[in-house]
Amino acid sequence: MKKYNFNAGPSILPEFTIQETVKAIQNLNGSGFSLMEISHRSKDFEAILAETITLFKELLQIPDGYSLLFLGGGASLQFCMIPYNFLNTKAAYLNTGVWASKALKEAKFFGETVEVATSKDKNFNYIPKGYVVPADADYFHITTNNTIYGTEIHTDIDSKVPLIADMSSDILSRTMDVSKYALIYGGAQKNLGPAGVTFVIIKNELLKSQKKQIPSILDYKQHIENDSMYNTPPCVPIYACLQTLKWIKNLGGVAELEKINIKKAQILYDEIDRNKIFKGTAVKEDRSLMNVCFVMSEPFAALEDEFMEFTKKKGVVGIKGHRSVGGFRASIYNAMPIEGVQVLVDAMKEFEKLKV
Fold this sequence. Notes:
By secondary structure, this protein is of the alpha/beta class.
């Protein structure tokens, strides 16, 4: 029986990425050495890094004047690095969930922060609207997709102050205008590669606002000047990211992938809305294309565990909701095929026939 990985992260990867990375771990380019043991200063790895940067910029249409970094520490380290580098007077944050809250918490160590809006009042089931960002803020930070609550900002925000976005869980899932952002960052382990590497897309002009003396390892300038090799980069995860980027290009690019993602989400949300046993938790206009969250309708709430076991027998893995919201969460990242979503939908239909 084929299994479908709906885990929120680390999550499903394209089979192409897995197979090509396995080959390189065994023997990179016929060199007789494993990818895990080559020097990051070798010509082989320098070529890997250069190709990864070139392809990433091509697929996202990153304009001139931006640098692309691959760093360690996960997106959580960026919660610290961003305010350390750029919070001089005050920073503005949109609080749409756990990760946005954590980013805001870290920023408070470095200066004044303004929570321009939050959806905490309704357990983060919507994206706030109509907020005002202080014109004198050093930057405005958003989390574009909220994995735990299943909400997403679907369009690129127009911001009068530098816009910084955590795109850990929706990068490369839709076409976007990178020029509207001063900095984009995220962990790779949702849509790009395995855990262990963080991407940072940074507008070089933003670096001019850096006024503090910063430890070198936390200084974006140091990493840019050293081409992501100020310290040893996570070589294997970067190689895996390159394979995913190749997979996306072969698929037709980000625009084609966006069409597939919209179709997958529509199939699943349509069933949630139709099925008598389930109901969605996020406001419809803010529903995520990446993380579909839903619960049991009354009076079926007691059937959660039974449904989990039922879906496992169908090959569905990892749909248990986060402990803070309960219910179910189907993460349908880029690598999840439509057939996997259909298997889950068919299981939902079958379960309804058994119980209603």
